[in-house]
Design brief:
Elements: H1 13-27, H2 32-55, H3 61-119, E1 126-129, H4 151-155, H5 158-163, E2 174-179, E3 184-191, E4 200-209, E5 212-217
Antiparallel strand pairs: 1-2, 2-3, 3-4, 4-5
């Protein structure tokens, strides 16, 4: 008597794969690229799984539907997360770039105070260096930064020579000192941090009061 052959159990692997990918897409929605890929696979595999379920007596239909729903949800959630994360990341990057300008501004403040203490006069105005604000946004400038310029280029300007100031590393910012009177002036740091043609300016007002150089520090304007 012949031994009966057991029929192989029917499977709907696409439905299962769709469910797994859809769920993974939701989990990875904080990582837009990965979340979108997993969500898209969840939708594709879920749709194929639904088609196969119709030929297999609805086998795996629930998993296929789960994959479709989770895949679609991951698309929406990834978009929402990206809308939240990208502006926050850009703000963090701009603050990181701005932190370097604060150090340079404080150094200029100290040099101006020292100059007045030694000579009883504010230093002469210093033209914008290393270049015009925003001009760093060029393919000629790696990382959209001004390249380091030699000290001779800075010291051709009477103001920078008096301040003994230069930048020794690439910078997003350009700097300027304007002496507006015998007792007043402004220190400026200017940059187009995200190269959108909007210049962010940090301006500190300098005033000599009773022989003391005082500085009013203002926050940078929005970029």
């Amino acid at each position: 008597m012949a031994t009966p052959v057991m029929a192989a159990p029917r499977k709907n692997g696409m439905a299962t794969a769709g469910m797994i990918c859809g769920i993974v897409g939701i989990v990875l929605c904080w990582f837009p690229f990965l979340g979108l890929i997993a969500g898209l696979l969840g939708i594709v595999f879920g749709a194929i799984g639904m088609s196969r379920a119709g030929r297999l007596g609805n086998l795996g239909k629930g998993a296929a539907i789960t994959g479709l729903v989770c895949g679609i949800l991951s698309f929406f959630m990834t978009g929402v997360m990206a809308a939240i994360a990208i502006p926050a990341f850009m703000e963090y990057m701009n603050k990181s770039k701005a932190s370097g300008s604060q150090l340079s501004l404080r150094l200029l403040e100290k040099r101006i105070q020292s100059q007045y203490h030694e000579r009883s006069e504010l230093p002469p105005s210093a033209a914008e260096m290393p270049g015009p604000a925003g001009s760093a946004c060029s393919s000629d400038h790696p990382g959209y930064k001004f390249p380091v310029r030699p000290i001779a280029a800075w010291h051709r300007d009477d103001g920078w020579r008096a301040l003994d100031f230069m930048l020794d590393e690439p910078s997003h910012y350009s700097y300027k000192w304007t002496r507006t009177s015998d007792k007043t002036g402004t220190i400026e740091a200017n940059a187009d941090l995200d190269c959108d043609m909007t210049i962010s300016t940090t301006r500190w007002e300098v005033e000599v009061i009773d022989g003391i150089v005082r500085v009013l520090r203002s926050p940078p304007t929005p970029d």
